[in-house]
Amino acid sequence: MGAINGKAFMERMDNLNSEIWLDGRKVTQKLSTHPAFKGILKEKAALYDLQTSLDMKQLMTFPSPDTGEHIGMSYLQPKTKEDLYKRRKMMECWAKASFGMMGRSPDYLNTAVMSLASSASLLAGKENCFPENIVRLYKEARERDLTFTHTFITPQVNRSQIFLEDAKEPISAKVIARTSEGLVIKGARLLATQGGITDEVLVFGAPKYDKNEAFAFSIPSNTPGLKFIGRESFAGGKSQIDHPLSSRYEEMDCILVFNDVLVPWSRVFYYDNLDAANEFLNNSSFHHFALHQVLIRQIVKTEFLLGIAELIIDTIDIREYTHIQEKMAEIIITLETMKALLDKSENDASYDNWGGLVPSITPLQVSSNIFSKNYPRFVEIIQLLGASGLVTLPTEAAFQSEIRKDLLQYLQGANKQAVDRNKIFRLGWDLTMSAFGSRQTQYERFFFGDPVRSASSLYRNYALDEHVRSVSNFLQLGNSEDDNPTNQQPI
Fold first, then answer.
1. Measuring CA to CA, how many Å separate 172 from each of 189, 194, 393, 456?
2. What is the mean pLDDT of each run of 10 residues along the chain (491 residues)?
3. What distance in Å separates the CA atoms of residue 393 and residue 235, rounded to the nearest whole number?
4. pTM of the model
5. Taken in order 252, 104, 193, 381, is the CA torsion positive or negative?
6. Distance CA 411, CA 356 (A)
């Protein structure tokens, strides 16, 4: 089959029949027509059309090593820096097509599956581990161009480090039976973005003590007993002028409920193995490649945000104020820093134990820490630039009513007509002040987990010995006679 187009993707989603619940009601209509999903599915379909268009095919795909058919470039396992560059250009293309607003564009988890398969040998020979199943899933995914959601998080019931679940019915999803057919899973997991509207669900346990939660697998979204419970939809109304982003890029977040779900053995990566559950992701190339994809998207998103900010500035002519220039410089400095860190991650790439070329993790972790802290500031800057203009925003319908003349007169900009001014400010509002925009801020703040823990991890794993040694040598620490108590004179 190889790389699919938008039509094939949309047909696959409409035929999926996952069990999805929204606002207490089970979704029964076609996903492509449902108000909560039609926007994001249409935008994803456009990405698939882009990858199969004749003029983009060479950039977006490569020949399968198994079939020779062209498959998505995000599945490429890089062996050279040229391969890394090819991956970057493909992911930039998809990110720019969606302005970096699609946090779970298909290349994110395509990349995850690729990296896990590249590192599958870490599980070879270990108890209850099946690395061949990871490789098999990767090959199936790339040849069929499957889409994925994932869950790595347990329900937020009690975050105490000493909490041990003691409930008759499991809260966090766990293995309740091991049968000849496979594992039986019961309980819940968070936080499946685009849950129910992808082919597959990638599930990784995150146990501290309980081996029943020490598992990893992938199953189809329409697996019997698997339920997706969505939050309130933030998709805007029918007007793409009123809701320019939320009407297109709203990505539903779901609770996954496993009601005695059977996971066939052929789908299990490992189970009942605490070491594998706590070490595989960290020791694999997952974080290297996932952060690489994320940084590419975040750079594009920052560029888009910078463009919005400049349009607001130009529309109401506030460019000459130095505090405005300072705010814009904040965004520019972060943007250029992230670009430099992306280059460094690729320039410092090294080969892993299996012959794959892996981007350097430290620049990627630094950028992740920078963006998670600075994105909320970018949102604040847009709010400060737009000020009251982001509050007094008529709808598209208002401009088509008998008050149109008033709106054209009183809402014009310094060099923009009122209709265009309203479009620009509606965009700024949707990104920073709507329910969709607030979710975007929270999403980017916690995209790769708790930012405090991310910073702690960066510090704990950063190579400091050489710097400490340099300072110690400068001070001649341990070489001074004053260190010998017998040489000290009484005061």
1. 6, 20, 44, 26
2. 94 96 96 96 97 93 94 97 96 97 96 97 96 98 97 73 60 94 96 95 88 96 97 91 96 96 98 95 95 98 98 97 98 98 97 93 96 97 96 94 96 95 97 96 88 91 94 88 52 44
3. 18
4. 0.93
5. negative
6. 57
